[in-house]
Write a structure and sequence with these properties.
By secondary structure, this protein is of the alpha/beta class. 34% of the residues lie in helices and 15% in strands. The protein contains nine helices and nine strands. The strands form two sheets. The protein has a five-stranded mixed sheet with strand order 2-1-3-9-4. Strands 6-8-5-7 form a four-stranded mixed sheet. Helix 2 packs across helix 3. It is elongated, with a radius of gyration of 33 Å.
């Protein structure tokens, strides 16, 4: 057992730096602190321990017996601390980093992930649309909700949904009287350049100032919503598509699980890497001499099953 009371690791490292250098100025330089601060720390440590750690007035600096003993224990503590840190790093699950471009709302999927996989952190990273491919290829994120198109070379992408374009106009603009408009209705309007989705907020600010109108994806209009502006669907211009993308060489169990969450798979889906496969119960044998009755055919109402609505 240590003959010294508990000492915080930082002060131990500062003491050990002097003990190994046997020179206060060099040790202070290596620690990036002032020599005076280092000297005061050692003096306070000696006062706390009630013993000298360095021989007073010795040139060059020399350790006392107590100083040598503390240095040995300090090295053991450092080794143990590093081993514990390495062990924690190995056992702690790595976070799944999921990026998302402006306009994409990930709250629903974050909530489901937290409920199903509480031991695997989900790190959500806001990514500019201009950086969506770079963030994936550089490894800043494991997956990303992107706005298509993207370069599909060495890149997987699952299209999720399409966004209707809307025109953003001042609240008192005549277009606000309609539910939807066509491009012909905007022929006499000054259209703001919104090709750069990341700068759409600035274009919408100009619309609020009375300078023209802006056509943006619906989610971008909602993201930059203002009380003095309204937006209406544009029926005859290109929509945009949101997809979940990731490099195939980084497909892992957490990546597969997140795909399942986004696609709406159940928690115990057989397609999930951690899904539980349930075995069918064995049939009970029939008593001798008795034959099982045939199952009744289900009756139908004559109605066709309802078809799902297309998003």
């Amino acid at each position: 057992m240590s003959q010294f009371p508990s000492i915080d690791v930082q002060r131990l490292r500062w003491f050990a730096a002097v003990a190994e250098e046997l020179h206060f100025a060099r040790a202070a330089k290596g620690l990036h602190i002032s020599r005076q601060k280092l000297s005061h720390t050692v003096i306070d440590l000696e006062t706390e321990l009630g013993t000298k750690l360095f021989v007073p007035g010795a040139q060059p600096t020399r350790l006392t017996d107590a100083g040598q003993e503390l240095l040995r224990e300090a090295r053991e503590i450092f080794a143990r601390t590093e081993k514990e840190a390495d062990s924690a790093a190995v056992t702690a699950p790595a976070a799944l980093r999921v990026g998302f471009v402006p306009g994409v709302t990930v709250t629903k999927w974050e909530r489901i992930w937290g409920r199903r996989f509480p031991d695997t952190p989900l790190e959500l990273v806001a990514v500019a649309q201009a950086d969506q491919e770079t963030a994936l290829r550089d490894g800043r994120v494991d997956m990303c909700f992107v706005r298509l198109p993207i370069d599909r070379d060495r890149m997987n992408a699952i299209p999720l949904y399409r966004e209707l374009p809307v025109v953003v106009v001042p609240k008192d603009h005549e277009i606000s009287l309609f539910d939807e408009v066509g491009m012909a209705d905007l022929a006499n309007e000054r259209l703001q350049d919104t090709a750069d989705i990341d700068a759409a907020g600035a274009a919408i600010e100009l619309v609020a100032a009375g300078v023209g109108v802006a056509i943006v994806p619906h989610s971008i209009a909602r993201l930059h919503h203002r009380r003095d502006l309204v937006y209406r669907t544009v029926t005859d211009t290109d929509d945009t598509e949101i997809a979940l993308a990731w490099p195939p060489d980084r497909t892992s169990d957490p990546v597969e699980e997140f795909i399942g969450v986004v696609r709406g798979r159940s928690e115990n889906s057989s397609r999930s890497p951690t899904g539980k496969r349930t075995e069918p119960e064995p049939r009970k044998p029939h008593p001798p001499g008795k034959r099982p009755r045939p199952a009744k055919k289900p009756t139908t109402s004559g109605k066709k099953p309802a078809r799902g609505r297309k998003r």
